Amino acid sequence: xxxxxxxxxxxxxxxxxxxxxxxxxxxxxxxxxxxxxxxxxxxxxxxxxxxxxxxxxxxxxxxxxxxxxxxxxxxxxxxxxxxxxxxxxxxxxxxxxxxxxxxxxxxxxxxxxxxxxxxxxxxxxxxxxxxxxxxxxxxxxxxxxxxxxxxxxxxxxxxxxxxxxxxxxxxxxxxxxxxxxxxxxxxxxxxxxxxxxxxxxxxxxxxxxxxxxxxxxxxxxxxxxxxxxxxxxxxxxxxx
Length: 240
Prior knowledge:
This protein is mostly helical and 240 residues long. It contains 10 helices and no strands. It has a domain at 4-57 and 123-234.
């Protein structure tokens, strides 16, 4: 559940929205309408806190997996991950009253692939999960753009951002290539690296790579924003 590269495209892009451009612009619009800076600032801080706590809940199972993998072995690490992911899922449901589709998807992938790995006594099943999911995301993005002529990233973010279709298409390709690279890198790790390195790769390297591509996407999006939107964001940051 806390595996960043294994989440849906929507989650990754919502991360961009919430933490970078649209996160601030949406709150600025709310402020301009309400005219109440104190309430606005309080709401902003509260939303940030809830967001960070939710991200922490999603990341903790990865840390648990990595620690138990190092101390014991892959199978114990997977069992610990399944337990931690279940607890995190339940806690998220209790605290936030609902779970995102992506969180449900990630949780089910951990339980299904983890369960199959333990039942069949074959750790490669769990390792291949990363490649299969990332290749699946890339295939969905590319198929939607070049066959069905629909840009899924634009569909997700189009209501929030007004960009040229060529920008959306390039962004779609960037994320598709990222998923492909992640899948190929995982194949290399499976065949040529140790289980301990796989744990490091899964828990820290892939999330780090996702953070980098998120920053790149944010910069790319900001470059093509309307001048008025840029000026509003600048004014808001100065006020903040």
